[in-house]
Amino acid sequence: MTAAPRRPDVAADGVARGQAVVDELVALLDLDETGPDTFRGTSPESRRFRVYGGQVAGQALVAAGRTVPAGRWVHSLHSYFIRGGDPRVPIEYRTERIRDGRSFTTRRVLAVQDDEAIFMMSASFQVPQEGLVHAEPAPTDVPAPESLPDLGTRRAAGHGGDWLGRAERPIDIRFVDEPVWTADRVATQEPLRAWLRADGTLSDDPLLHTCLLTWASDMMLLSSVVARHDLSATQVQMASLDHAIWFHQPCRADEWLLYECWSPAASGGRGLATGRFFTRDGRMVATTAQEGLTRLPRR
């Protein structure tokens, strides 16, 4: 007898969350193999206008990881968003085996819809090795995630704007600082920080945790560009242009991670954002960088 599907929990604003929604995201990352080094992915029904950038990056990393010898873990990825993806159309991930060395493996992935490229990624995997170890310390003046409201609570209280809308929430995100989509926020030169984790339990597969972190890494990077200006994100057209991640240490995506994002520069209708992930015990586990469109409306 087949077990009945798990019913999702509901956030304070009525949006689905919890283990059932996390399971759906894990299923979304479990691509179908359609040929040699070729995979097929789909988008959730809740996405109506454009494929979420973190989704296509996470799926592309799954496609690359499926072709890598066992015992090699991704240490970096570099990618470009070429076209906006249509969530109604399946995505084909074409993986190219660039190199299999003694220590490093390199893969390139092209995401295609209707014979047009929408995204490309290069990813490098490494055999675990010993070497020098150091890292920036985690911020110390950050409240615990349990003391902060989740997104559903913010929205139910009228402080959530339309960020993420009614889309299901597999990631529990709790903002330390005032989010950029609130109307009464003011400009700040400080980083934008939030605690986040998968809103359920994941298996022990290291690639899955890395892909979930990749999925979540696109959620607030460009918001840090807007954070430095005295306006709301609702007044800015934003879209990711490229995305890079360096994975320093393993971590679990179903345990709290502090994501600290800051923008060093913006010009020409583009903004550069950088980010750092820290575990709750202070380990720096990943660094991110992204440039994106940050256009103001025409007068």
From TrEMBL:
Keywords: Hydrolase. InterPro entries: Acyl-CoA_hotdog, Acyl_CoA_thio, HotDog_dom_sf, TesB_ACOT8-like_N, TesB_C. Transmembrane segments: none annotated. The keyword Hydrolase applies. CDD domains: Thioesterase_II_repeat1, Thioesterase_II_repeat2. Residues 193-293 form the Acyl-CoA thioesterase 2 C-terminal domain. It comes from the Bacteria. Residues 50-126 form the Acyl-CoA thioesterase-like N-terminal HotDog domain. Belongs to the C/M/P thioester hydrolase family. This is Acyl-CoA thioesterase II. The lineage of its organism: Bacteria, Bacillati, Actinomycetota, Actinomycetes, Pseudonocardiales.
